[in-house]
């Protein structure tokens, strides 16, 4: 996949809640976990995590979780910047974004 297609899928530079929501969904899908499982890992109620994901407004704890446990960093979640992500993480994220 070329860089232009990746930027389009990641909505690079788009900081709208909708774009962040799409990237959060892709991040969770790459983990293979359901919302309840991520919420438990974060020590949150499922409704709290669901709210963050659906509003495109992740907490710092949520972003730290994705970075520390799954190597998906803040730059991708908030801005769609994927250049610093490991290739295997990029591959999984773009597969999830294409499935949207």
Which strand-content bin applies to the residues?
under 5%
Helix fraction bin? over 70%
Q: Could you name the ranges where pLDDT drops below 50 across 5 or more consecutive residues?
A: none
If helices are DSSP runs of H or I spanning 4 or more residues, what is the number of helices?
A: 7
Nearest-integer average pLDDT: 96
Shape: globular
Largest sheet geometry: none
The figure for the number of domains is 1
Give the structural class: mainly alpha
Let me know the number of strands.
0
Order of helices and strands: HHHHHHH
Distance between the termini: 16 Å
- Kindly provide the radius of gyration, computed on alpha-carbon positions and rounded to a whole number of angstroms: 12 Å
Structural topology:
Blueprint: H1 3-10, H2 17-31, H3 35-42, H4 46-55, H5 60-70, H6 74-79, H7 87-99
Helix pairs in contact: 2-4, 2-7, 3-4
